[in-house]
Amino acid sequence: MSGFAAGGKWRFDWLMRRRHADCDMLKTKAAPRARMQPLESGQVWHMAELKMQVELVGKLLVHYKLAKFNAVRIPNSISSKVNIEKFLKKNKAVLVSQPKAVPAKK
């Protein structure tokens, strides 16, 4: 019986250390990322090997150009806003240039 008591104490100590370690791991949080800007005409987004220039943003669709940095001819593409936002988020895109505000005509 003494072997069971010693083994039981060892298991209990291990369980308590493990539980304490799990609690410490739960307390750590990842650094918050900046929220993604809403899509607007004239934006330029950079990714690892690509850049995307947003030409026109409509109610549901986005006209854009997606190309590598050294591309000569860049085709125009059309996709839904939701798909573009998912693509930018998945590829960790960074907004490089924001369109300038145009003053209203009088």
Distance between the termini: 95 Å
CATH class of the domain at 44-97: Alpha Beta
Q: In this structure, how is the largest beta sheet organized? A: 5 strands, antiparallel
**Low-confidence spans: pLDDT under 50, at least 5 residues?**
none
User: Please, how many helices?
Assistant: 2
Mean pLDDT level: 80
Name the helix and strand elements from N-terminus to C-terminus, one letter apiece: HEEEEHE
Q: Helical proportion?
A: 25-40%
| Structural category | alpha+beta
CATH topology of the domain at 44-97: Nucleotidyltransferase, domain 5
Radius of gyration: 26 Å
Task: Describe the 3D structure.
By secondary structure, the protein is an alpha+beta fold. It has a domain at 44-97: Nucleotidyltransferase, domain 5 (2-Layer Sandwich). The chain has two helices and five strands. The protein has a five-stranded antiparallel sheet with strand order 4-3-2-1-5. The chain is elongated and about 80 Å long.
Write a brief structural summary.
The chain has two helices and five strands, in the order H-E-E-E-E-H-E. The model has no long low-confidence stretch (mean pLDDT 80).
Q: Which SSEs are present, and which pair or pack?
A:
Blueprint: H1 2-27, E1 44-46, E2 50-57, E3 61-68, E4 76-80, H2 81-90, E5 94-97
Antiparallel strand pairs: 1-2, 1-5, 2-3, 3-4
